[in-house]
């Protein structure tokens, strides 16, 4: 095991989180670097965020696979997604020809499997944001929930995912027989429980929730500087532009991810924090 791999292991232990990551750089001409960081929040439950960040060669193609899985009510669903969601996406027969369609199908199939395995996985849930960097030319982002993907070009932040908040999807939730409540001092919640309108799992609420992802495609060009994926522990206290500005002058991707998480803590974020940073 190399010194950097040992450092990665120590970092995972110190952050009390879970990550699937490699230390390889991209082999394409752009040479993007990626890093990640996790911080346990102030809640009494264990860390429920999971991270995936690695490059993968598939025949003559190079894929950068990045994701944040933010569990709620348990770790099991986020852990399952970390182990299976990208595998399911890449196993879709039309992934290369109809990528967006394949991702939507894989999200749906994965959620159906999670619900079928509720006896083993429990009735908790997880949000997810995934980003697939294809040959360092195209980025495909999909998400359910409120973890977020942001890209920076020429110093300007652009959000690539959709925050699935209950108030924004009230009519869909009510059409399914659910309701959205908001008590003083709290955020809107589906059936008085869940603070997101879309998620994997959550079997007891599934009739009123969706696991349909929003999918977006972004071209990677010479103006592309940074990609950030992060859980809501960062976005509750920072805007997209503030997050970009916080790390734009840091070359090392691991150090940038750490700095971003530390800034969220300094701004009194109390939630679990996880982030992946890709620097070009």
From TrEMBL:
<dbReference type="InterPro" id="IPR036457">
    <property type="entry name" value="PPM-type-like_dom_sf"/>
</dbReference>
<dbReference type="InterPro" id="IPR001932">
    <property type="entry name" value="PPM-type_phosphatase-like_dom"/>
</dbReference>
<dbReference type="Pfam" id="PF00481">
    <property type="entry name" value="PP2C"/>
</dbReference>
<keyword id="KW-0378">Hydrolase</keyword>
<keyword id="KW-0464">Manganese</keyword>
<keyword id="KW-0904">Protein phosphatase</keyword>
<dbReference type="GO" id="GO:0046872">
    <property type="term" value="F:metal ion binding"/>
</dbReference>
<protein>
    <recommendedName>
        <fullName>protein-serine/threonine phosphatase</fullName>
        <ecNumber>3.1.3.16</ecNumber>
    </recommendedName>
</protein>
<keyword id="KW-0479">Metal-binding</keyword>
<keyword id="KW-0460">Magnesium</keyword>
<feature type="domain" description="PPM-type phosphatase">
    <location>
        <begin position="33"/>
        <end position="280"/>
    </location>
</feature>
<dbReference type="InterPro" id="IPR015655">
    <property type="entry name" value="PP2C"/>
</dbReference>
<comment type="similarity">
    <text>Belongs to the PP2C family.</text>
</comment>
<dbReference type="GO" id="GO:0004722">
    <property type="term" value="F:protein serine/threonine phosphatase activity"/>
</dbReference>
